[in-house]
Design goal:
With 253 residues, the chain is α/β, with parallel strands linked by helices. The protein is built from 7 helices and 8 strands. The longest helix has 18 residues, at 114-131. It is globular and about 55 Å long.
Length: 253
């Protein structure tokens, strides 16, 4: 692909050939955040721009705060893979993908540098304002692909993004005792938990059985919204946090 004019005012442009037409959507309504999970940002950028990789994202944010745009926002980048949110399965067609240079879980979950987070916030604010993306549609890769993906990880500062005007967040419920649900449990309370997760947007069949998929979705939820303990067990803190999130949404308030 030849060069193009960047959508973000201070983005460097490094075109990737890996993109296509957006399919069946009138407007973009998801902002999807990833970490690269690679040892270096330069290696990640090269991979996202390599034809043989068959992957790309719209943006890459380097550790020093530099922002590189690889695919125009009007085009469908290949970043989400097999995924689902709110019953929709072609997340690539309805989203903007932002890769954040970070070695991630394979590299021991290093901290995100201050300059990088400032740049992520600036970029996200411009994207959500330009496209009218709702706060609850600013998502993690792990939200739309539980079990398969864990990025951008439990160290990512979602609370800080929210304070800056990006994304949906509530103060997590305190971790403590009380009733909990885990793999193998079944019954109406498990069905209620699955229903709440599904209402928020997670792709989860409502069966009343706390199966491996339910455990993975609970862990993904914790990784985004209750980061102090990510274990896939639906304890009182997890359930309280989920309830707070749901009731704070305009459609349920």
């Amino acid at each position: 692909m030849s060069s193009f004019t960047g959508d973000f005012k201070r983005a460097e442009v490094c075109p990737s050939p890996n993109h296509g037409e957006r399919v069946g959507v009138d407007r973009l309504d998801i902002l999807l955040l990833h970490y690269t999970g690679m040892p270096s940002a330069e290696g990640a950028q090269a991979w996202l721009c390599a034809p043989e990789s068959q992957v790309s994202s719209h943006y890459l944010v380097h550790e020093d705060g530099r922002v590189v745009q690889m695919v125009p926002e009007e085009r469908r980048a290949w970043h989400a893979g097999k995924s689902i949110w709110g019953g929709e399965t072609d997340i690539n067609s309805r989203s903007i993908g932002i890769e954040i240079a970070n070695a991630g879980h394979p590299g021991g979950l290093p901290d995100f540098p201050e300059k990088q987070i400032e740049a992520v916030i600036e970029l996200c604010l411009e994207c959500v304002n330009r496209h009218g993306i709702a706060p609850e549609r600013v998502l993690a890769h792990s939200d739309v692909a539980p079990i398969r993906k864990v990025d951008p990880g439990e160290n990512f500062p979602w609370d800080r993004l929210h304070r800056a005007g990006v994304g949906h967040w509530v103060e997590p419920g305190p971790i403590g005792g009380g009733r909990f649900f885990q793999r193998g449990d079944r019954g109406q309370p498990v069905e209620a938990l699955q229903s709440m997760l599904s209402l928020y947007g997670y792709g989860l069949e409502i069966t009343g059985e706390f199966c491996a998929q339910t455990e993975g979705v609970v862990a993904a939820f914790q990784r985004h919204f209750r980061q102090a303990k990510v274990d896939g067990v639906a304890d009182s803190s997890t359930i309280e946090t989920l309830h707070r999130l749901l009731t704070s949404l305009p459609r349920f308030g």
